[in-house]
Write a structure and sequence with these properties.
The protein has 9 helices and 6 strands; from the N terminus they run ααββαβαβββααααα. The protein has 403 residues and is an alpha+beta fold. It has a 6-stranded antiparallel β-sheet. 8% of the residues are buried. This is Rad50/SbcC-type AAA domain-containing protein.
Length: 403
Amino acid sequence: GKSPNLRQLPARSKAAAAMAGTISRIRLENFMCHSSLDIELGQHVNFITGQNGSGKSAILTALCIAFGCRAKNTQRAATLKDFIKTGCSDAAIAVDINNQGEDAFKPDIYGNLIKLERRITKSSSSTILKDQHGRKVAHRKDDLNEIVEHFNIDVENPCVIMSQDKSREFLHSGNDKDKFKFFFKATLLQRLKELLETIRDQVHKADSDVQELEKSIKPVMRELDELREKIKNMEHIEEIAHDIDNLKKKLAWSWVYEVDQQIEEQTVKLQKLKGRAPACQERIDRNTVVIDKLKKELIEKEENLRSLVGKTREENNMKKSMENNIAEAVKREIELEAEHERGAHMLQRKNGRLNQLQAQLRDFQMQHMQSTQAEASQMEKDMQNIQQQIDHLHSNVTRVKRG
């Protein structure tokens, strides 16, 4: 049950006495024999009393499970789902941890209280860490391990949490070896041994990695030796290059001597040429007079050429003008030929019409000779009309011929 003297403390005194890492409250739902349990704990020693089977050890087991203990290590069940109360589908554990003072864990994130909630179902389990206001902060197992390591809460250490089975095993065991095992585990020597074994395994692995690296380095070492040999060869090449520079210098001086000799020979030739210079100058003067005459002639020919170019340009313009006139005349000729052809066709039609009228005239004349005097007068009128038409056609034909 609850500690009576702690319940009588005022809230201010309890807050002042709170220490970082102490558990202030435990809530269980459907965990082992508890359907719903809510316990507030004091800051120091707390006693929980009750009859056998009332659920005292279940509270201690719930703390172990909340802080990450495996089900087998509690010696109460084989799996986490075995802690769910019979007839229920899940179980929940909530633990409030004080987080005040110098040893507080990330107080800027969690505040004065860390709320740890562990929920267990038949298929899975989850852990949630909340701040003092109930806001979710983290849910990973590593985050819980940080808190456990910070507050030194080692639930698997029998000196931290000693279950009934462990206390019975320690008190009633007469075997020094078993007591040593208990001591070995309680003093964290067993964990230290496990860490040393882990470190030993890592060292062995590191040695094997080093051996693999050495094997991989061997080709590089061979390349390094080859490079060193090449460097030696390069040093020898540098000596050869130095000798080449000296030989180049000697070759340059030999070239200077050769050039000096050639200069002397050219100097002799130059003296000879200087002796021939007056005669050459005289020839140059004569050629200068000739060149001047040729220049004058060239200027005159250029002027004639320019005048010829101008005339040629005028003639080209005239030629283009004439070609344009010829093109227009040809075009006009084609138009006149077309018009003449149309007139000839028209004249042919007019001649046909004339022949028809002449035939009609002859017919009328025959009819006139056979008709009466009255009809003769009428026929005469008709003949006059026909004669007018013939005259009109003759005038048209004449006009077409003239056109």
